[in-house]
Predict the structure.
Amino acid sequence: MTSKGLSQVRKDRMSAGQKDSWSDPTKRVEQKKRIVEKMLLKVTRADRIESAAPLNIENARQALVDEMKKLDDQLAKFEPLMKRRDKLSSILGELNSLRERQSS
């Protein structure tokens, strides 16, 4: 047994399992996520959160506002198409009702 209480055989098995998981792309993604989460937990400290939070919140808010403006601009381009589609849809509804009247 080693100083941490694990035998060399068990350490070898764990090492082999980690190598296998790293070679599998789906497991690799999961493992990377866990590593990033651990890093974020280590970095997060109360003193850093207080000083950095207002700046991060403002940056995030501004990024969302900018993204919403871009989406509004894109939606404005599609507004005439939506109006035309609505008009065609109403015409189709009228034609369907005329067809029903003729068949009865």
